[in-house]
Amino acid sequence: MSGPCAESSHRSRGPVRRSGVALGRFLTGAGLPVFVGAATAVYELFLLAVLFAPADWGFWGAFAEEFKVWCFSYDPRTGGMEWMAVVIMLAEPLFICGVLVGIWRMGRGRSLDPAPRLARPVRPAMAGVVFGLVAVGGLYAIGRPAAELPVPPFPGERIRTQLEPPTFALVDQRGEAATDADLAGAVTLVTGVYATCSTSCPEILLQVRDTLDALPAEVRDRLRVWAFSLSPEYDTVELMTGVAEAYGFTYPQFRYLNGPVAPTKAVLENWQFSARRDPSTGLVEHANLFILLDAQGKIAYRFNLDRRHEGWLREAILALTAEAEAARL
């Protein structure tokens, strides 16, 4: 073919051919391993920055903590995480990169002239860095924690109940009897924990501790805290006493209640703690409840382990103790 049409066809195929040649060089030369290596380096630096970022590093610290919780079962309270998962996540890309480089060297790499290729990998390396940064940016955009909404004010009487508490007859960590009939006479905070719990129970106990510390002394002295054992089989007197001492609770303000296994489990069921032991882990899955009873012994409020409820719990205690004091006068 000749003439204007043939000339035009040659012109249109030129860029395509050059692109195909460039792609072939990229795939069979040093470009692909360098590109993958650069992207892998960015990924590894990202993981290290996540692993060692302190939680108080603003948005990045919050993102890193969320990432570790989801990917490595990170526990913010203890700092523990599944290190094997960390090792796998760090080593996997390096392994893939090493395999790729090995294949390249066994194939095209042996026929390449190393001298002129020292300068060529600059562009693939830059492309790999950009690719890695875009991927990391995407992870951050997807996984960054949402901004926390302001806590609404305590609804007060609008969410208050006046329910009769389920009956129970248990003993505390000192062997003293405690029944539902003893609930009347003072504002009482009821919750449920077990001594060997390493998940939410420490948070529950810390919130109780923080709530007590935040109350005015005259209110704190009139508040009782009763904790049902969520593991009646294993919560011994020694363990229950140890928990009370570890969190600085005093007796009789804090009473840790337990009893025979079957009756205690019936109490937990009636109070809706939904405690079930997972046979595969040995952990007790349970509701994280704070049940607040007024001075008449009626269930007034029911909260859970939620940041919003933390402030509401304190407000409810203040309201109920003020109500009890007004009734006494």
From TrEMBL:
The keyword Transmembrane helix applies. InterPro entries: SCO1/SenC, Thioredoxin-like_sf. SUPFAM superfamilies: Thioredoxin-like (SSF52833). The keyword Transmembrane applies. This is SCO family protein. The chain crosses the membrane at residues 26-53, 83-104, 125-143. Keywords: Membrane, Transmembrane, Transmembrane helix. Belongs to the SCO1/2 family. It comes from the Bacteria.
